[in-house]
Amino acid sequence: MKPAAIRDIALRVLVSLGAVGLIIYFLHDKLGESLNILRHDVRWEGVLFAAFLQIIALGFLAARLRYVFQVQKIHVTFKESFYLGIVALFFNLFLPSAVGGDVAKAYYAYKHSGKKMESTTSVILDRLMGFAALILMALAALAIAHGDIHDARIDHLVYLALGLMVVTILFFASKRFARVFRFLAILIPSEKWKERLVNIYHAIHNYRHHRGILALCIGLSFVAQIFFVMIHYCLARSLGVDAPLAIFFMLVPLVAIISMAPSIGGLGVREAGITYLFGRIMPTEHALALSLLVDTLLYGFSFLSGIIFALKGGLKQKEFRDMESIQ
């Protein structure tokens, strides 16, 4: 394994363990109460309905990825795109390596199509569109539900994310704007990497000629995120929490953005984000219980994804090396 990959793994393990440690340290007196809530107070029919919504949400994400691939003339069926999505879940949560879910998606799309750069670019753009939908949803919810939650730090998180989204869109839409960041090239370790990143930039930049597909994919992202918000709302209701739905449309996207921090599939940072943000609108022990219930659903789906992946042949050592090389 390359030294850079080892450093990446070490950083993500450190962040996850550190975040989990901080949760235990600061909330050790609430942990027992949260576990009691999960043992005695959960209405499991709500959890099952949330699981059903999860399947639907993954379906919309699979449709989005399929349309993104079509622009690069990578032809996959909806079933194949859905399979790529669930494989990514397994890689994100159960393989604490340098190979994440997006890399796995790009690799298997490349194996299917023989188009390495196009597969990588499509997966990157797919992630960017999901990111844009998250921020726009949080911004809209902030405008609607601003009076229901009084925490300036949450407002600032939304505005910070919005600023990042605007910069990202301008970066890929305008070459003139992108030139402002040329000084960052000194951080790129080799000419080979510089050439690869330039090619990826141009490939994403060329998507501006497919505005209809981009609009459709953003729409699919919004629908998928609505289902993810409803999943959290159903889980909260299953814990006996009655909070305005509009607030969930603001907080769930922020949790998703926080979970993108370097970690083992969001472990630690996701739970900290849910506990902190939802602790503004519900008792802390219920917010912590909600984070554990979200984990139960997420890891349950990932475990089932791993079983499906194993039944289809699993991961061979050569494939793993190839995935590392595609990064």
How many beta-strand runs? 0
Q: How large a portion of the residues is in β-strands, by DSSP E?
A: under 5%
Number of helices: 13
Instruction: Report helical residue fraction.
Output: over 70%
- The SS-based structural class is mainly alpha
Shape: globular
Distance between the termini: 13 Å
Please give a structural write-up.
With 327 residues, this protein is an all-alpha fold. The chain has one domain. The protein has 13 helices and no strands. Helix 10 packs antiparallel against helix 11 (269-278) and helix 11 (269-278) runs antiparallel to helix 12 (284-311). It is globular and about 55 Å long. 35% of the residues are buried.
Question: What are the SSEs and their pairings?
Answer:
Blueprint lengths: L2 H38 L3 H28 L6 H17 L6 H13 L2 H30 L6 H22 L1 H4 L12 H15 L5 H28 L6 H14 L10 H10 L5 H28 L5 H10 L1
List the keywords.
mainly alpha; globular; single chain
Entry summary:
The protein has 327 residues and is an all-alpha fold.
